[in-house]
Design brief:
The complex is a heterodimer of chains A (325) and B (256). With 325 residues, chain A is mainly α. Helices cover 67% and strands 2% of the residues of chain A. In chain B, 65% of the residues lie in helices and 0% in strands. The chains are: A mainly alpha (325), B mainly alpha (256).
Chain lengths: 325, 256
């Protein structure tokens, strides 16, 4: 889940228009960019899609950290393909947000100014090669939980972006699991790296779904608008239920002494992550927040001359036919 | 220098030159991941790196096969030291700013494309097949790098100055690509690889046209660095290999 804690905007539109809009959503119709929509719907979507796009872009950094150290040519190629996909996901999502009237540059500037967030998970470091496996297996696994239902979201461009993204994400998760499998069945050192990666990424992965939102007014509004399809707790439970048997298959131990199967509910009971840590990470106090944002700021600043140069050339080209006349 | 060259040894050498150049350039380009000036360039750089790493797998895979000592592409990539690498000096130049990375790519692509066209005519079917596949990818690399060199060379004052600076810095590393040694000559005579001197005309014409349209000036002076393809590298390559080869070297018993 790459968009967390998205607060839905209150809306003060004409009640009749609102009712008609809600009826379209309830009937399963897609809302398209030129259709009338409540201001709150538009703003909430910009925030959510923008945050998701930023997560794809910032998410390149922890994986890029290992592209230059990938242990085989094939692993390097696969990781490059994956990170390239993520940049592509960022692109579709920024385009989807643009249909709501906000430019990619505006969203980027809001990210760099700290006015917009990206997923908390990317503020954790990738310390060993097994972390690249854990990121694919757990982080992309958690993202898929959220994104599969969002293929049915009410906003047409977002829904279509999600359909494309989900196809690629399932490949990402499989490559992550494949790295973990290789590590978990490898040498003693590799097995220890795999366990260590699971230990460090387990709770941050659970945090990706955000705190319990069952009583949240904002979540209820987003769910009525079909911008949010499930509660955070539902998705977290689904993720745990899917992932624990995979960890067992790998011979790895989920770092939760209270984890146990609950036959009555047909799911696992598990420990909550440390929400204090989560809120600290959101405030900018995670292990890598400063580096991640500094890297994006540097790319933006260092790239300014390139963007300006391209615009200058385009302006010359546009002027050339006029000058020739 | 002996006129008698063992053809298998020459072929191993020639294939390492191709595979090491794509590996080292692919690695350099991959260092940009997440740091490009615009999102489209993040995608293009990753895609270029991916193509080059894929080509490396094919060239070094064939090199290992020709050598016949059981070394795989990975063994060659991750278990040779600097003096055994045969890549061109141009491709190990550090990324510098985006202008340097782009100019390096263009100067290489302008050679790579006619080189692959020549290799596609190889008497050795395995070489021809790899070249055919790689040629399709590299045609796109060249289209992109030439287009961006023109746009940034003939862009703003700053982009022009940065592109000219990149050209001035990198130009002396381009001679090596078209100066054959005994290995290159033996491979050309056997019809396995093209005559490098024959690439000069195509390269010159392409580079001059693009740089002229980019309003960039080819530096004076004829001095050219050489030695990369004989294993005499700059200090930069060792640092790259230290990073690239870390895992297989640190955990020699592991498979990944």
């Amino acid at each position: 889940m790459y968009a967390q804690m998205v607060t839905s905007e209150a809306t003060q539109d004409d009640p009749e228009k609102l009712a008609a809009f809600q009826a379209r959503i309830d009937a399963g119709e897609k809302i398209e960019p030129k259709d009338w929509m409540p201001e709150g719907y538009r703003k909430t979507l910009i925030r959510q899609i923008g945050q998701h796009a930023h997560s794809e872009i910032v998410g390149q950094l922890p994986e890029g950290n290992w592209i230059t150290r990938a242990p085989t040519l094939e692993r390097k190629a696969i990781l490059l393909a994956k990170v390239q996909d993520e940049a592509g996901h960022g692109l579709y999502l920024y385009c989807a947000a643009e249909t709501l009237g906000v430019s990619r540059d505006e969203l980027t500037e809001a990210l760099l100014a700290g006015k917009m967030k990206y997923s908390s998970i990317f503020n954790y470091p990738t310390l060993t090669w097994a972390d690249i496996g854990a990121v694919g297996w757990l982080v992309d696994g958690a993202a898929i939980m959220n994104q599969v239902p969002l293929q049915r979201t009410s906003f047409g461009p977002y829904s279509r972006a999600m359909i494309r993204i989900c196809k690629e994400e399932s490949f990402h998760q499989r490559q992550g699991f494949d790295i973990m499998r290789k590590m978990a069945t490898g040498t003693e050192a590799q097995r220890r790296m795999a366990q260590d990666a699971l230990n460090r990424f387990w709770y941050p992965s659970l945090m990706m779904f955000g705190p319990s939102d069952k009583d949240s007014v904002h979540s209820a509004q987003s769910m009525r608008w079909k911008i949010k399809m499930n509660t955070n707790d539902e998705l977290r439970q689904k993720f745990v239920d899917q992932t624990v048997p995979q960890a067992e298959y790998l011979g790895l131990t989920v770092p939760d002494p209270d984890l146990r199967w609950n036959a009555e509910k047909g799911g696992y009971d598990f420990s909550e992550p440390d929400w204090t840590e989560f809120f600290e990470v959101l405030k900018g106090n995670g292990p890598c927040n400063a580096e991640r944002l500094a890297a994006r700021q540097k790319a933006w600043d260092d790239g300014a001359w390139v963007r300006e140069g391209l615009m200058a050339h385009a302006a010359k080209r546009a002027a050339a036919p006029l000058a020739a006349e | 220098m002996s006129a008698v060259v063992d053809l298998d040894a020459a072929m191993f050498e020639g294939l390492c030159r191709l595979g090491d150049s794509t590996l080292v350039l692919g690695h350099r380009v991959s260092e940009w991941c997440g740091h490009a000036p615009v999102l489209e360039e993040d995608i293009a750089l990753a895609n270029t790196a991916l193509d080059l790493i894929g080509q490396t797998q094919m060239w070094l895979g064939l090199a290992g096969e020709v050598e016949g000592r059981g070394r795989t592409a990975d063994a060659l990539a991750f278990h040779r030291d600097v003096w055994e690498f045969r890549n061109l000096l141009l491709v190990e130049r550090p990324n510098g700013d985006f202008g340097h990375t782009l100019m390096r790519q263009f100067l290489f692509d302008a050679w790579h494309q006619p080189m692959l066209a020549g290799l596609a005519q190889s008497q050795d079917a395995r070489v021809a097949e790899i070249a055919e596949k790689a040629g399709k990818e590299v045609a796109y690399h060249l289209e992109r790098s030439a287009d961006l060199v023109i746009r940034l060379g003939d862009g703003s004052d700053e982009s022009h100055a940065r592109m000219q600076d990149a050209l001035d810095m990198l130009w002396p590393y381009t001679g090596e690509m078209m100066v054959p040694d005994a290995t290159d000559i033996a491979l050309a005579e056997a019809g396995i690889m093209p005559d490098l001197t024959g690439l000069r005309g195509t390269w010159d014409a392409l580079v001059r046209d693009v740089l002229a349209e980019a309003t960039l000036v080819i530096p004076d002076g004829s001095f050219m660095h050489k030695g990369g393809k004989q294993g005499q590298h700059s200090e930069h390559l060792g640092h790259m290999l230290a990073i690239m080869q870390f895992l297989p070297r640190a955990y020699p018993d592991a498979t990944w």
